Amino acid sequence: MLRPTRRIASKAPRAAMATTLFAALTLISGVHAGMAETFAYVGNADSNDISVFKMTASGEMTPVQTAAFKGVDKPGSSTPLAITPDHRVLIAGIRSQPYLAVSFAIDPKTGQLSHIGNGPLADSMANIAVDHSGKFLFSASYGGNKVALNPLLANGVAGEPKQVIPTGLNAHAFLPSPDNRFAFATNLGSDQVLSFAFDATAGTLTPSDPPAHKVPEKSGPRHFVFHPNGKFVYLLHELNGDLAAFTYEAKGGAWDEIQRTTALPEGFSGKPWGADIHITPDGRYLYASERTTNTLTAYKVDATSGKLTTIGSVPTEKQPRGFNVDPSGRYLAAVGELSDSMTVYAIDQSSGALAKLKSYPTGKKPNWVEFLNLP
User: Fold this and answer.
1) In terms of pLDDT, which residue wins out, 35 or 366?
2) Among 3, 125, 119, which Cα is nearest to 72's?
3) Element holding 171 (H helix, E strand)
4) Cα–Cα distance for residue pair 61/38, rounded to 1 Å
5) For every residue of 15-82, which 3-state class applies, written as one string?
């Protein structure tokens, strides 16, 4: 009974050696099958284009393209970006008239962008996001005090707005819940977060009951992010620099505040100006940017309680309106509206601390970063 086992086993080392040798050769030659490439897309408001970078495993960035917006003449105040869940289309929100959603096809091999077409937006939109079905585009208008829902056509171009909903003052972010059953909109000037039930089949938004969650007066809720486990939400406030943690009840879409800390560095003086917030894909670390001090603050996330422990702050680009974390969770890239450049940081995997690697020139007034793994 043991003989067949011995004969089969005797061939195993040869097979293993051959497999190992092949793997080594393919790695050396750089043609490892199925290896994902990482790309970064930076929205530049004043130059009306997108800077495309390819990132290596060591965090090095190489510029590969500058993709101009077609049919756009005047610069807007910012350039929000969104990528469809299938990674085939990138959409840019144009905040100068005529208000447009500019759609680009993403080449799955090179990461480069090719213009597909432009669709209408309901107003100057500070934030855009694609729902998890990839069929609808959410948008929020800061100056227009409204949110909107556009269908996305089969080619990824936005159709006419399906719903335009008046909000409180200064709608700033409008994002779907992790399960796509709800959508939430921050109202920076009214100090509230609006809640909507979202029907992704019909493409309709219905105010929840209650329709809003109040936050402290003059705090200015701006951007928020869900924990990857779907149990917590983190909300950054622009006007007082607060960072609030909430439990998230998926069944009813309820937020319940459990902690309030700050994105302001130690010894802060001046007027707070909170900007952006992102969490690592594994949910272990969270980061926020602040524009008065030009800093990034890091936090450790307790996966059980959802509470945050501040790690510390580092200096970054001038007026860091936008940044993001790469899909591996090993790097963070921040852009400066007033420095026209992007700095890449390594994320210490044991502590979450940021270490500056290198800076790169971008277009004019960069304010948004999206990362993508291809294919």
Assistant:
1) 366
2) 119
3) strand 171-176
4) 10
5) HHHHHHHHHHHHHHHCCCCCCCEEEEEEEECCCCEEEEEEECCCCCEEEEEEEECCCCCCCCCCCCEE
Closest CA to 210 of 234, 193, 189: 193
Confidence of residue 228 (pLDDT cuts 50, 70, 90): very high
Residues 8-43: tens digit of each pLDDT: 343 444 444 444 444 443 343 344 445 799 999 999
Query: What confidence score (pLDDT) does residue 358 get?
Result: 98
Q: Is the dihedral of CA 158, 163, 169, 172 positive or negative?
A: negative
Q: What is the pTM of this model?
A: 0.91
DSSP 186-244: EETTTTEEEEEEEETTTTEEEEEEEEEEE--TT--EEEEEE-TTSSEEEEEETTT-EEE
Rounded to whole angstroms, how far apart are CA atoms 155 and 116?
8
Per DSSP, 153 falls in state P
Could you tell me if 148 and 165 are in contact, meaning their C-beta atoms sit under 8 angstroms apart?
Answer: yes
332, 367, 287: which is closest to 79 by C-alpha?
A: 367
The chain-wide mean pLDDT, for the chain, equals 92
- Do 110 and 150 contact (CB within 8 A), yes or no? no
Instruction: Give the dihedral sign, CA 101/280/233/250.
Output: positive
The CA distance from 82 to 252, in Å, is: 26
Residues in the chain: 375
